[in-house]
Design goal:
The chain is of the alpha+beta class and 356 residues long. It contains 13 helices and 6 strands. It folds into 2 domains: 173 residues, no CATH class; 158 residues, 2-Layer Sandwich (Alpha-Beta Plaits), CATH 3.30.70.270. Strands 2-3-1-4-5-6 form a 6-stranded mixed beta sheet, with helices on both faces. α6 runs antiparallel to α7. The radius of gyration is 29 Å and the shape is elongated. The two termini are 47 Å apart.
């Protein structure tokens, strides 16, 4: 997998898009750091600062490895954790040898931490970085310069940390908006393929069976026509709450259409998923939505089969849901492995867990 993120990936999977941007940022920071530091290796060697030249050479080698791993393998070499160590050692030793001229490299290196590492790690490294530079400055520089360096480097790290924190919050919010349905808060189709593929991989590698349930409200258009779209939206929100009450933390709820929802149930066989689906239909029809809006729903259940793709798995469930609609609604149909649905179960059956 290349570290670059295609526009198609950005549109279909926001999480991968964010990861791609982070890798591009790490790539460019290491690339330009390498170009800036590489000439200093020769300069410091010519000045007979051989140990400093070795530290700078190791910094350049790490940058090359990060660039190569991102470009060739699409992975972040050691998650960038060599950068702060080598940068801190090089900047501190350079300050000890060269005085003020060695400090100039400490500022971009300290700020870069917040673009390369998780915020908490970057904060810890920055405190250590400022402390080391402050100690070295106290030993080799006049006292007024020690205070200037300590406070200016500390403030630079603080401002970078605040900026990184705000960017992280913005990224989380944008990802949430891109991956969830704004009305119900359910996951949307952007996550569907990845999550189903994870369950398929668990089936292939570890024989862990998963199932999915499709639920579609019956005659939902009549609700919008009779009570208005605002009432329809309230029904969908209330439906989401009723569904969530019956799901485990590991289960995932999608809204994949106007009034169609999908539940992915990890490590759940057809029998258990069918029992849950019938309970859900009972909870939907048992009491009215809003004041007097009574709703029923149709559902289908499909257990993942070995060797099938996520689209085939979903299509089997979709065909079973279509059968449930044709056979009178308000019932559950289990999808067969051949994609021809069978085994219709009435929604009001008492088998399985009781409805709260």
């Amino acid at each position: 997998m290349n570290f670059l993120t295609s526009p198609e990936t950005m549109a279909t999977n926001p999480n991968l898009a964010v990861l791609g941007f982070k890798r591009q940022l790490a790539y460019h920071l290491h690339f330009w750091a390498f170009l800036s530091v590489a000439p200093l290796v020769l300069i410091q060697w010519q000045k007979e600062h051989h140990l400093l030249a070795v530290f700078l050479l190791l910094f350049c080698i790490n940058a090359v490895l990060v660039i190569a791993f991102l470009r060739i393998k699409g992975r972040y070499f050691l998650q960038g954790r060599l950068f702060p160590i080598l940068a801190m050692i090089s900047a501190a030793y350079s300050t000890a040898l060269n005085g003020h001229s060695g400090l100039y490299w400490a500022y971009p290196a300290a700020i870069a931490l917040f673009f390369l590492l998780p915020l908490k790690e970057a904060g810890i490294y920055s405190i250590l970085f400022v402390t080391v530079i402050a100690v070295v400055s106290f030993l080799v520089l006049p006292e007024p310069d020690f205070w200037r360096v300590s406070f200016s480097l500390g403030l630079s790290c603080l401002f970078a940390m605040i900026f990184a924190w705000l960017v992280g919050r913005l990224q989380q919010e944008l990802t949430r908006l891109a991956t969830t349905d704004p009305l119900t808060g359910c996951l949307n189709r952007s996550q569907l393929a990845d999550i189903l593929n994870v369950q398929i991989q668990m089936r292939e590698r570890y024989e862990r069976v998963s199932s999915l349930v499709l639920i579609d409200l019956d005659y939902f258009k009549m609700i919008n026509d009779r009570w208005g779209h605002l009432a329809g939206d309230k029904v969908l929100k209330e439906l989401t709450l009723r569904l969530r009450k019956r799901l485990r933390e590991s289960d995932q709820l999608f809204r994949i259409g106007g009034e169609e929802f999908m539940m992915v149930l990890p490590e759940t066989r057809m029998k258990d998923a069918d029992a849950l689906a019938r309970q859900l239909l009972t909870s939907i029809s048992a009491r009215p939505f809003l004041d007097d809006i009574r709703v029923t729903a149709s559902a289908s259940v499909a257990e993942v089969c070995k060797g099938e793709t996520w689209s085939v798995w979903l299509n089997r469930a979709d065909q079973a849901l279509y059968t449930a609609k044709n056979k009178g609604r308000n019932q559950v149909v289990k999808a067969s492995k051949s994609a021809s649905p069978s085994a219709i179960s009435p929604a009001g059956a008492s088998e399985g867990r009781e409805i709260a």
